[in-house]
Amino acid sequence: MFSERTNWRLAQNRFTQAVEEARTRGAKILDLSASNPTRVGLQYDSAAILSALRSERALDYDPQAKGLLTAREAVAHYYRDVSSAALDPEKIVLTASTSEGYSYVFRLLCNGGDELLVPKPSYPLFEFLADLQDVRLVPYPLIYDHGWQMDFHSMEKAVTSRTRGVVIVHPNNPTGSYVKPPEFEPLNEFCRSHGLALIVDEVFLDYGMDGMPHSSFVRNEHVLTFTLSGLSKISALPQMKVAWIVTSGPDEPVSAAMARLEVIADTYLSMNAPVQWAVPTLLEQRSEIQRQLMDRVKTNLKELDRQLAGQKSCQRLQVEGGWYAVLRVPVTRSDEDLAIELVLEKSVLVHPGHFYDFETDGYLVLSLIPEREEFQIGVCGVLEYLKS
Length: 388
Ligand SMILES: Cc1ncc(COP(=O)(O)O)c(C=O)c1O
Fold this sequence. Notes:
Layout: H1 14-24, E1 30-31, H2 46-52, H3 69-83, E2 92-95, H4 98-109, E3 115-120, H5 125-132, E4 136-144, E5 148-150, H6 152-158, E6 163-169, H7 181-194, E7 197-201, E8 225-230, H8 231-234, E9 243-248, H9 251-268, H10 273-284, H11 286-308, E10 315-316, E11 324-328, H12 335-346, E12 348-349, E13 351-352, E14 363-367, H13 372-387
Parallel strand pairs: 1-12, 3-4, 3-6, 6-7, 7-8
Antiparallel strand pairs: 2-9, 4-5, 8-9, 10-11, 11-14, 13-14
Bound molecules: pyridoxal-5'-phosphate.
């Protein structure tokens, strides 16, 4: 009765079962996998946020396929501020989430069975997005050598006649690595020579750890580029369901892409009016909430380093940006077994590396946004367990 594309293994995995078991036992779980910013004790300006959602203008229904112009102009202003980019709001399409943005772009570029190159390790949602759009994902490895780097040699080998685009996560989740300035040119050349589009996820762009502004791909004019981002990370407001696709590149493919994207967006009209009118205010919230988050991430990273300095068995990999740290741990059992033991024995929840498709065992992924005390005690639990 059902489509093959939804033939997923839906049974709980062993890790999820272990988390449930620990919770059923009544254990207070220290959640070092937390990624929901609305539940980690940040101070939001609730009055400003709620009053922005109460605009009288939301009583009018004005179905604009790309989203209301005021909201798209606010997105363009954001890029002027963070990347000195002068964006035409007509090249912006609003979506309810970055995931929805991915699905529009996958649908735009790919026939069933076409391929997209995706980084490995990276974010686990891609697989479901690709299944739903009948797209085949072909991983290209990121190499760790005193920092993460793209490996153009492997990317060349991964291209086939069915490849349509390259997905870049800038900075990547969970490796926290940005595309480096010397990689921009070879990346464009790679896409140009194979006729591929770039799909760039920049949800964590603003969370750089070195205090330097990192260039957004919205300014990339060399090849057809779709830059995806949204309020879920920029303003730490995932519940508002506001994201966007910015299209850039040579004029001809950009116009053709925009005309088609507009039809895709018009078919769903998924943006609601109250939130679109609120976008300028919700984007303004970013400066204060990013300040709090950066403070949290840096404090937790410092605490992690302090505790790591007292032992020798594990190290953390370099973090350039984002909300996560990757720990290299001894390979005495699978990452999944280790994460299960940590939750059952220490009540500490961390993600095993294999969730993110790390090449081998020996990696744990820790969120850096939990509240400080929870993070500190949680890390202590992990390191104690690894010592025992
Ligand atoms: C790299 C990356 N892209 C996209 C998303 C999802 O964003 P959205 O909530 O806008 O769909 C996440 C969520 O964690 C993410 O880590």
